[in-house]
Design a protein that fits this description.
alpha/beta, 8-stranded parallel barrel, binds 3-methyl-2-oxobutanoic acid
Length: 260
């Protein structure tokens, strides 16, 4: 059953498990495994399109992947990222959010705080469920050296907290906190009624989100320290690919029973 009311998780002390997905096979598998929410993240700019940042992601990309994922999952709440430049004005934001809802998103996500106050208000008055995203905002980042922990000093920590409190009053359903000190995430989470979903924000958040390819050890290159490769011990995916290559080269795949 879909819990579109994320507050219930927090009220019940039940942590929210969220993973990204971009395609039908992965969405079905994640959904079947009991993940509470699936995010069609604009991380697809990097992990699907192979670009350096999220800025190349278009509304067309998001509609395409959101529709696929939404059609593939029955249990999990479907959250769709609104891409760079798709919520520059409240009119544009509403139009684009409605398109994402029309293809199956239960909720949209936008990055930033007080600067988007009007957008959050318009969403609330039009019944568009929205998740905020504070701390590191990948749409502000153009190269990997800018991926830095946020909210380390008093001023920036204060801004994250005040933005979080403002978003709650504006009717936001949950807030992703990315790359902030654990102590700050704990403070923000304790001050809010709505849940926080952390990525690189420590264990005190009300839920956790990871990019699926990162946690399966598929993403190549240096990954942030908050990523845990959940198949690292067995290295199942690289082992399977290497076994395939080995058996093809040895002529042992396919066998007679695997042939017609
Ligand atoms: O784009 C994304 O995948 C995200 C994350 C929170 C992982 O925004």
């Amino acid at each position: 059953m879909k819990h579109s009311d994320l507050n219930l998780y927090k009220e019940n002390g039940d942590k929210i498990a969220c993973l990204t997905a971009y395609d039908a096979s992965m969405a079905k598998l994640i959904d079947k495994c009991g993940v509470d929410a699936i995010l069609i993240g604009d991380s697809l700019g990097m992990v699907v399109k192979g670009h350096k940042n999220t800025r190349s992601v278009t509304m067309q990309d998001m509609l395409y992947h959101t529709e696929i994922v939404a059609n593939s999952c029955q249990q999990a709440l479907v959250i769709a990222d609104m891409p760079f430049m798709s919520y520059e004005s409240s009119e544009l934001a509403l139009k684009n959010a409605q398109k994402l809802v029309n293809v199956g998103a239960d909720m949209v996500k936008i990055e930033g705080g007080q600067e988007h106050e009007e957008v959050f208000r318009v969403f609330s008055s039009n019944n568009i469920k929205v998740c905020g995203h504070l701390g590191l905002q990948p749409q502000m980042v153009s190269n990997s050296s800018e991926y830095k922990i946020q909210g380390k000093d008093e001023r920036s920590a204060g801004k994250i907290l005040s933005d979080a409190l403002l978003l709650e009053t504006l009717g936001v359903s949950a807030i992703v906190l990315e790359c902030v000190p654990s102590a700050l995430a704990k403070k923000v989470s304790s001050k809010l009624v709505i849940p926080t979903i952390g990525i690189g924000a420590g264990k005190h958040c009300d839920g956790q989100v990871l990019v699926i390819y990162d946690m399966l050890g598929i993403t190549q290159g240096k990954l942030p320290r908050f990523v845990r490769n959940f198949v690292a011990t067995e290295g199942m995916i690289p082992l399977a690919i290497s076994a395939f290559v080995k058996e093809v080269k040895a002529g042992t795949f396919p066998s007679t029973s695997e042939s017609y």
